[in-house]
Amino acid sequence: MKLGMFFREALRSIRANAAISVAATVTALIAVFILGAFIPSFMYVRSAVDSQKAKVDVDVYIADTATVAQVNALRGKIDGLRTDGTVASATYVSKEDALRIMKERLRDPSVLDELPSNPLPAKFNVKPNDAENADVIVAALKDDPALDPTEGIVYPESTADRLLTAAKFVQWAGFVLIGILLLAAILLIGNTIRLSIFARRREVEVMRLVGATNWFIRWPFMIEGVICGLVGAIVAVAMLWGIKVGVVDAWAAGADSALTKTGSAAGTIAFPLLTLVLVGAGALLGAVGSAITLRRFLKV
């Protein structure tokens, strides 16, 4: 029953201070809209970088003179790396398979028929569990006697380093930007709630004089902040849905570029889940903004 009283009091305050309530709602709308546009973009870029990291592999070339025992010993080392989680998978590619793959990649495979023999060495195609493990794999296998003296171990070191740097930058930049957005929204909503408290300062003073507890005073304002946050979040989600359907989906369906084709490898957050996150964020922003403001205001 007391919660219902707090809720009715919050609605009364919203009606009595319509301009301030609209300001708080618009503040929440802007914050949630920016957050809703940023989260899918951040997750898409991060997913795209992760999908490229998954393509980093290590080719371990085997000398033609290597004995069966040496090849098996090399295989054992790779299996050991797989057991400890450094390697995700390893595939043996024979000389014949390497030649066949080369023919499939060439527009005119008949040019290989002129070769007196198969010049391609056998290899193990090793996929690291994480791109950061490529250096560990190289260090563990670089002195193996079965390695081809010419080819040895080949992997895109510079590409892997750039991908790892990009992944770390995207991750930390995303966390920092999301934190800044949330902090700014809390402070802005808190300031608008402060105006509402100031408009009712005499009423609050009377409640304190008659012995009302701080939480008794807080609840209507916090519910007011939650309502403003929820309404702003719902309107922001509706706007984002309109932009998604009318602009993003239409562009993606008609576009024919390398960027849109990465969609099969890269992904982002589903819109229903994003809706739940944003609505929850709007309510939380309103509650936290109100709580912080009230905490300062109610200090004796």
Q: Could you describe the 3D structure shown?
A:
70% of the residues lie in helices and 6% in strands. It is of the alpha+beta class and 300 residues long. The model is unreliable at 256-265 (pLDDT under 50).
Q: What's this entry about, in short?
A:
The chain is an alpha+beta fold. It has helices spanning 2-16, 18-53, 68-83, 95-105, 134-141, 157-199, 201-209, 214-254, 258-261, 271-297, and strands at residues 58-61, 87-93, 123-128, 153-154.
Estimate percent helicity.
over 70%
**Multimerization state:** single chain
Order of helices and strands: HHEHEHEHEHHHHH
- Global geometry: elongated
Major sheet size, sense and barrel closure:
4 strands, antiparallel
Q: What fraction of residues sit in β-strands?
A: 5-15%
Q: Taking Cα atoms only, what radius of gyration do you get, to the nearest Å?
A: 31 Å
Give the count of helical stretches: 10
Write the SSE topology:
Layout lengths: L1 H15 L1 H36 L4 E4 L6 H16 L3 E7 L1 H11 L17 E6 L5 H8 L11 E2 L2 H43 L1 H9 L4 H41 L3 H4 L9 H27 L3
Antiparallel strand pairs: 1-3, 1-4, 2-3
Provide tags for this entry.
single chain; 300 residues; alpha+beta; Alpha-Beta Plaits; 4 strands
